[in-house]
Amino acid sequence: TSARPKLLLTGPIMEAVVERQLEQHFTLLGPDNFEAIIAAEGAEIRGLATKGKMRVDGALMDRLPNLEIVSNFGVGYDTVDAAAAAERKIIVTNTPDVLNEEVADLAVGLLLATVRELPQADAYVRAGKWLKGPYPLSATLRDRKVGIVGMGRIGKAIAKRLEAFGLPIVYHTRRAQPDVPFQHYDNLIAMAKDVDTLVLILPGGAATRNLVNAEVLEALGPRGILVNVARGTVVDEPALLKALQDKTILAAGLDVFVDEPRVPEAFFALNNVVLLPHAGSATHHTREGMGQLVVDNLVSWFAGKGPVTPVGETPWPK
Ligand code: NDP
């Protein structure tokens, strides 16, 4: 075995600075010829760095019998089967905290863009339509009550911003948090009935699939604004499309979709939706911080110092 552990990449590596650091510590394999590499040297691969869409499931782990760690670029790790990893004593790490403020900024920006129709208004000016008359009046944030679904690291950063905006805030999670000053709802439908604005910032995966369904949208009602910066899978996408078409809710701001980068084309025809290309953490500053944490987790692990930011399912400390 070589001195430098073999690290398999599931996709193009993040930032150049990250790749340079990884090259110093590891023999990098993939993402080209992924299958052939696994067939030829699967048993020598000790680490995996992953980003984005490829599923890292138990079947893949079984083809890498000496895999010790999966380092995920992103705080959301719904593409990694962390339970299957734990069964196999494989460490999974993610990139929490370094992106909280960035994603919260984007969430609030998307909320404002959706309520005040900023992209639509921009298009109006560019098309020369202002010369023919003023842009129609929009909805407002001023009379809104916001329900945040997910009150973790990023949810709290969003709440802090919206508090400064003077908006009443409530939240839905599975467990109430005694240290959070906002009203907690056990039941999402009950909360959707009591608010007119929902901001989604919780993990994707099986446990949250289609959590926001037709019934929740109905409860949100005709003044309703939905902002999704969580994962596309959290929303029943066809039900949302229909709710926007039928004006069951007023508008939506979406950063995430079920089958990215394929956005259902029917959304493009709607004027009451703002669409972003999964841009929550997408700045040079924050992507670098995330990349550094991907590197730090791998380097720390192979230096015998343990993972820096293991996910909840990873039993650590052992
Ligand atoms: P945290 O783990 O800190 O918080 C997650 C929150 O979601 C907790 O409050 C948790 O509370 C709640 N939650 C989890 N499961 C459920 C459920 N089934 N029903 C209701 N609430 C639930 O995560 P972060 O704040 O760091 O990140 C949240 C998510 O945001 C990520 O997992 C990722 O998917 C997404 N994200 C999206 C980005 C983008 O670019 N658009 C960028 C970064 C993150 P409880 O356990 O009590 O239910």
Question: What is the fold's blueprint, element by element?
Answer:
Layout: E1 6-9, H1 16-25, E2 27-29, H2 34-41, E3 45-51, H3 58-62, E4 69-73, H4 82-87, E5 91-93, H5 100-116, H6 118-126, E6 146-149, H7 153-164, E7 169-172, E8 183-185, H8 188-194, E9 197-200, H9 214-220, E10 225-228, H10 237-245, E11 251-254, E12 273-275, H11 284-302
Parallel strand pairs: 1-2, 1-3, 3-4, 4-5, 6-7, 6-9, 7-8, 9-10, 10-11, 11-12
Largest sheet: 7 strands, parallel
Mean pLDDT rating: 96
Shape: globular
Radius of gyration: 22 Å
Structural class: alpha/beta
Which stretches are low in confidence, meaning pLDDT under 50 for 5 or more residues running?
Answer: none
**How many angstroms does the end-to-end distance come to?**
26 Å
Written as H for each helix and E for each strand, in order along the chain, the element string is EHEHEHEHEHHEHEEHEHEHEEH
Helicity range of the residues? 25-40%
Number of helices: 11
Strand order of the largest sheet: 8-7-6-9-10-11-12
Tell me the number of strands: 12
Distinct ligand kinds? NADPH dihydro-nicotinamide-adenine-dinucleotide phosphate
Percent range for β-strand residues: 15-25%
